[in-house]
């Protein structure tokens, strides 16, 4: 009898995994898909060459509103500044809300930011398109992002596609999202909240990249939700604690 060959998990180098992260998460949230896809395909042939491209390539100006030309490189680990950052004290959740997302945050700008952190963190760490779609359906008001349009859904789908796994993820791929820095701009009944994560993926090797998300949050029926209208321009995805993070106005989350 012939032995049936088992399909082994491919050996991923750090360079390829880093390129996948930029493609799947930072690439979507930064709107530099052309650059990210080019880096990913280069990584298939030569991970070291992909790392070099990440450090030097420049996305087209019209695909990076509000971002510097080295945005992809700035999302990777970099030199830390000794300048002091201001802080944002993020309140703790009180309940487990809809779609498994932590909730119960106060009706304050910091509470709005905390709710966005909880939404994004749950979606990224689930590494599942279906979970991302369920979350946005429960946490966006009518007229806001949908299960088909939300940038979070597209980010997870691109990450899984680049990793070669299904829309429900795989035990071979583990994703962690640590909220490190944030921005708040409160105006009337809405709060513009931005969170900058360090997203770490493990698939034989480990790689990390910064990924930011900004959403307009509104208070509805006793909880913060993502508001109606188009998604706002994104804050830069920059490595926490760097000069770039300081220049972007980020504050440390506590």
Question: Quick gist of this model?
Answer:
Helix content is 36%, strand content 22%.
Provide an overview of this structure:
With 254 residues, this protein is an alpha+beta fold. It has one domain. It is built from 8 helices and 8 strands; from the N terminus they run ααααβββαααββββαβ. The strands form 2 sheets. It has a 6-stranded mixed sheet, sandwiched between helices. A two-stranded antiparallel sheet has the order 2-3. The longest helix is centred in the middle third of the chain and has 18 residues. The N and C termini lie far apart (61 Å). The relative contact order is 0.19. The N terminus is likely disordered.
Compressed to H and E, one letter per element, the order equals HHHHEEEHHHEEEEHE
| Quantity of strands, as a count | 8
Ranges where pLDDT stays below 50 over 5 or more residues in a row are 1-11, 28-69
Helical segment tally? Answer: 8
3D shape: globular
Task: Jot down its keywords.
single chain, alpha+beta, two-stranded antiparallel ribbon, disordered N terminus
Chart the SSEs and their pairings:
Layout: H1 14-30, H2 33-45, H3 47-56, H4 71-74, E1 87-88, E2 95-96, E3 102-103, H5 109-126, H6 129-139, H7 151-163, E4 174-187, E5 190-203, E6 205-220, E7 223-226, H8 243-247, E8 251-253
Parallel strand pairs: 1-8
Antiparallel strand pairs: 2-3, 4-5, 4-8, 5-6, 6-7
Helix pairs in contact: 1-2, 1-3, 1-7, 2-3, 5-6, 6-7
